[in-house]
Amino acid sequence: MSTEDLNDQKLIDDIIAGLLQEQPSISPKFFYDEIGSHLFEAITFLEEYYPTRTEKQIMLQYDKAIALAIGKCDVLLDLGAGNCEKGSALFNSLMPKEYRALDISKEFLEQAISGLQKEFPQICMQAQTCDLQEELVFPDLVGQKKIFFYPGSSIGNFDPDAALGLFKNIVKVCEADGGLLIGVDLVKDHQVLYQAYNDALGITAAFNKNILLHLNRQVKTDFNLDHWEHCAIFNEQLSRIEMYLRSSQQQVVTWHGGQRQFEANELIHTENSYKYTQEKFESLLMSAGFKSVRSWTDSNSYFLVAYATA
Ligand code: AVJ
Hints:
The chain has 310 residues and is α/β, with parallel strands linked by helices. Helices cover 38% and strands 25% of the residues. The chain has helices spanning 3-20, 34-45, 51-61, 63-70, 85-88, 91-94, 106-119, 160-174, 190-196, 203-218, 278-287, and strands spanning 75-79, 98-103, 124-129, 146-150, 179-185, 228-235, 240-247, 251-255, 258-262, 267-274, 292-297, 303-309. The strands form 3 sheets. It has a 7-stranded mixed sheet with strand order 3-2-1-4-5-12-11, sandwiched between helices. Helix 7 links the parallel strand 2 (98-103) and strand 3 (124-129). The structure holds N,N,N-trimethyl-histidine. Residues 43, 51, 152-154, 156-157, 197, 204, 207, 271, 273 line the site of N,N,N-trimethyl-histidine.
């Protein structure tokens, strides 16, 4: 068995364990197979889904102030870089000596980087696999001023405790220099939040249900998509959007070596997307050990871009 098979087997075991919990769940990282990545991109074009375009607008409007707050940048570390579009938009204002693109899978990254390298020959570029659930270590970057970039409110998928852990890890890796530039979605009118995850075209519903097609391929489950419905609600107490798939009838789902019965209306949890107030988010950054925080927002206060100094 190759290491890849072993990893695949561990992944499959984790998914099955999730399905067998009393409150069944599937990790949101399984949204992003090939179709899922394209569906997410389609979501970012929806009128109802304001985060992506609002963040871009803030970054454009305040690019000089952001660059000034950051100062010198030896290495730009792009967490969840994907196609590197957002990270490379910072090259002209930050002028990093080195660009490190990090993501779960390396294939996508290397393609993106080879295109960028031609456009920015003076920047040293490298792709690296990285799982944000695990500890970040960069032994080869000791002594360099590191700027971490974590856009898109991806931090919203973490429970606040886990977000705090990630921030503490970044503070430590920064060695009292550098910092974190991060985008986060803000609490707002509940109807606006609700619509962003229940769009009229049903793209978010397709994105959510596609996770079952991914499992059917990866785990050889036999989910019938006709028997599952998209569900997204705002949990005010916990300040998060919760996404679920609701079983429309009693049914049994099977896989090699196991099965589970789902009752009508039973839910599988697929994602949390936390929404912060500016005050809460800044104090979370400060309690992780950052020395200071500066933030920028749009005229509606829909989204926040923050720079935390390590
Ligand atoms: C990529 C985690 C920021 O939470 O808004 C979009 C994912 N889920 N629509 C988000 C998502 C449903 C997105 N993040």
